[in-house]
Amino acid sequence: MSVSKDQNKIQEILTRGVEQVYPKSEMLGARLKEGKKLRLYVGIDPTGKDLHIGHALQLRKLKQFQDLGHEVIMLIGSFTGMIGDPTDKSAARQKLTRQQVLENAATYKKQASRILSFSGKNPAKIMFNHKWLGKLTFEEIVDLASNFTVQQMLERDMFDRRLKEGKPIYLHEFFYPLMQGYDSVAMDVDLEVGGSDQTFNMLAGRTLMKAVNNKEKMVMTLKLITNDEGKKMSKSEGGFVALNDAPKEMYGKIMAMDDSVIIPYFELATDVSMSEIAGKKIQMEQGVNPRDIKADLAFAVVRLFHDEKSAQVAREHFATVFQKHETPEEMNEVNVSAPEPILDVLVRSRLVMSKNEARRMIEQGGVKLDGAVVENIDLTVEGTPEGKVLQKGKRHFVKLVK
């Protein structure tokens, strides 16, 4: 596949969602306009089984390069994932085994195929970094480490905070940027794309590429979606939207987000034009209800990762359940043919993950049966032919039948 030099698409690549390009944007722009095929990658550590919107932002940027004809790689951190990226962490991550990280990554290709094309004339590649990092000798690691100083590592914000708070910094955590940097060397890439919180690690790759391959590797950092407190939208900080989420769940999660993320989300997670997004920003500044703009956002995201029909159904479902306070027409059914403790029914219906969570939800008034708040954790329930509605929180319903 030949490389396209479409000026509008190149401009979109260089600007939309981009925070900074190292060493400079003009250099990458010139390379793209030459029409020479670039090799670039996004790295994903398999610390969980779900890819999420944060991953999608990076994979969507990769897709823009793929559409122009460049060689793109989705790198699975099958080795670095065992170490755990210390970025923005106040304590060391729990180390994982090789088996755990490979199990977590088992469906990544299927999930990422919502964005990248893994077949056709210019298929995206998948690589695993244990294939080279696991083979490095101690002598080679020492040689790579000689390109960095302890002072450089300690400049990282989270390490500085830990020192001031008297919290430990483990030696293996210093190896993470070294290992990520070596990924660039092993794959001999021209460019790495990642969130701006990964700048330190990605620039470590620039250092090693110059030292080992005598090559200028470029780095593109992308904006992060953060709330009013500056916290990243993630599983640990809240606002986690998985690519595997069902349309109604995805729509509801976006509607529950802070109003402050609406415009950044439009730019980073949708295909809505920048001119239209600017118009929505003006509407919000002029007093239009943010909920209405957020509904447009939720629709655009669900349409992108599912389809138009699913987005429409999700929008109607949300309006029925949350704006009109009605129960949904379609619910999963759970057979409860004999009296059964409500704690067991909540777990069996998968409304909660454990009896402890079930108790907590009831104690907090978060469980309803046919619209009435359940107050007794020892309550027994039984289904009916027409079905009783068991509800957890605002968005989760099942019908108890017999």
UniProtKB/TrEMBL annotation:
Keywords: Aminoacyl-tRNA synthetase, ATP-binding, Ligase, Nucleotide-binding, Protein biosynthesis, RNA-binding. The keyword Zinc-finger does not apply. GO terms for molecular function: ATP binding; RNA binding; tyrosine-tRNA ligase activity. One of its GO terms (cellular component) is cytosol. PROSITE patterns: AA_TRNA_LIGASE_I, S4. InterPro entries: aa-tRNA-synth_I_CS, aa-tRNA-synth_Ic, Rossmann-like_a/b/a_fold, S4_RNA-bd, S4_RNA-bd_sf, SYY-like_C, Tyr-tRNA-ligase, Tyr-tRNA-ligase_bac-type. It comes from the Bacteria. Its EC number is 6.1.1.1. It holds the Pfam family tRNA-synt_1b. One of its GO terms (biological process) is tyrosyl-tRNA aminoacylation. Residues 341-402 form the RNA-binding S4 domain. It catalyses: tRNA(Tyr) + L-tyrosine + ATP = L-tyrosyl-tRNA(Tyr) + AMP + diphosphate + H(+). Belongs to the class-I aminoacyl-tRNA synthetase family. PANTHER family: TYROSINE--TRNA LIGASE, TYROSYL-TRNA SYNTHETASE. NCBIfam families: tyrS. This is Tyrosine--tRNA ligase.
